[in-house]
Amino acid sequence: MLQAHTVADVRAAEAALMSQVPPGSLMRWAAAGLAAYVREVAPGSGPVVFLVGTGDNGGDALFAAAELARERFVAVAIADPSRVHVEGSYAAQAAGCRLVDSPRGFGVVVDGVVGIGGAPGLRPPADAWRATIEAERPFVIAVDVPSGVDVDGATVAGGSFIPADATCTFGTYKNALLVDPAAGWAVRGALPRLIDIGLTPYLPAPSIEALQAADNRLLLSVLGSTLDQRGEAPTQKYTRGVVGVAAGSTAYAGAALLCVRGAQSGPAGMVRFLGEQDLAARVVDRCPEVVAHTDPAERGRVQAWVVGSGGGDEAAARLAVALEDEVPVVVDADALQHVPDRFDVPVLLTPHAGELARMLDVERSAVEADPLGHATRAAERWEATVLLKGARTLVVAPGEPARVNLTGSPWLATAGAGDVLAGVAGSFLAAGADPRDAGALAAFVHGAAAVVASGGGPVTASRVADAVPGVIAAWRNGTLDESQVRDWRDR
Ligand SMILES: NC(=O)C1=CN([C@@H]2O[C@H](COP(=O)(O)OP(=O)(O)OC[C@H]3O[C@@H](n4cnc5c(N)ncnc54)[C@H](O)[C@@H]3O)[C@@H](O)[C@H]2O)[C@@H](O)CC1
């Protein structure tokens, strides 16, 4: 798992490490990594300007500037000469860096204004530097984090920050580098570069986690409970888990089908469908493996329910029925407006920003501005796991590190994709995963399946569902490549 840590945890780890190594070592290592990264993402001998703030973030920038000045024209713009990192400043001067007062005219800008010590927002002269950058659009490389963002909250309140095309971070990721909206302004693409400065042994549990293609342990642990020790499928379909789908309505019949197809594409062994006669007939017609029930009283046993996708007016009644079974439930779409005050079963709530806003009685824009804060609020309010859908979907359970999903493609923003996701999540729940794991695994394979099915172009939700089994197979077999799971070339 990829990990991010809070500022306080990074500071404590840095202090512990610093007491073990010669003074200045961490900054030298960070600066060397930064210089190498600048060479990599802005190759050639073109001029570069380093924006230097008053703290150690500016120190990193100055030492990296000194190193690069041997190879190309390097300028430094100092925010406040009376509060500059002294040794870094001498090093940059000695290396021949030119002093300038703004990034004007430079094609490559390195932002060392503030790092983890920065309060959100920018002060003079950095606010003016930002305006120049906005007008001229140079290639911007952030040092540790883009200056001005809220590092732990991952927000960009007020818009007073320096957007980056690339970020070079040290020791561990920070929340703002993985979670939107801040993460979307830290890189063009998925991930900043992480420079190892020896912090890992001193870091506590993370604040944020993200599954990766290279690490299939969580998937294997869930599949291990549905498949036997030798990895062979048991003969009993029921031991792989039965997922019940109570989704769709006369008005939204497609949602029922897509949710069922999602449920079929996951690890569970069987799908039951509960719905009225016409809908049930259509589901069985298109998905003959499904066992359909029209009478809730004769619905059969399941290990997990998925309720609400396209459920319209029937969603409330379906949710009440599902909750009677005392098994885990995925609560999606229309059912989210009918959640009880508290749940007696494990629950995965799967809202998008608008649905979460309605649940919390706030504006949608407030959720979009602070998705982590609102998902956390809802998780605590309902003592349930919240999967908040977005470009970087969040999975938040009370008292646990939040998980962020880094797979997917902009093409996944398509009708019915959420219905498929709810079905896949229900399948993982029925297979024995807890809601937090089910949500994270489902979001991961769903996003990766979109990339596979899309091939870089438009994709339908049905094709995403069809691609899920192949992604699970590749991930399980260790052949899933990180480059296959995301298509984030666009900001
Ligand atoms: N502590 C360490 O050993 C290491 C620190 N490193 C670097 O040091 C950074 C943290 O350094 P600091 O703790 O000195 O803090 P920063 O350099 O991030 O920022 C603190 C300084 O910025 C000013 N400031 C705060 N908010 C501001 C704003 N909104 N606009 C303008 N100025 C603002 C403060 O007055 C203070 O002088 C990390 O992000 C990283 O880049 C790295 O060198 C790795 C090792």
Automatic annotation (TrEMBL):
EC number: 4.2.1.136
The record's free-text note on cofactor binding: Binds 1 potassium ion per subunit.
Keyword check for Lyase: yes
GO molecular-function term, one example from the UniProt record: metal ion binding
Keyword Isomerase: yes
Domain spans labelled YjeF N-terminal: 10-205
InterPro entries: CARKD (IPR000631), Nnr (IPR030677), Ribokinase-like (IPR029056), YjeF_N_dom (IPR004443), YjeF_N_dom_sf (IPR036652)
Domain of life: Bacteria
Positions that bind (6S)-NADPHX: A255, G310, H352, D419
Positions with a binding annotation for AMP: K389, G390, A391, R392, T393, G418
Record function comment: Bifunctional enzyme that catalyzes the epimerization of the S- and R-forms of NAD(P)HX and the dehydration of the S-form of NAD(P)HX at the expense of ADP, which is converted to AMP. This allows the repair of both epimers of NAD(P)HX, a damaged form of NAD(P)H that is a result of enzymatic or heat-dependent hydration.
Quaternary structure (record): Homotetramer.
Record protein name field: ADP-dependent (S)-NAD(P)H-hydrate dehydratase
Organism expressing this protein natively: Mumia zhuanghuii
Gene responsible for this protein: nnrD
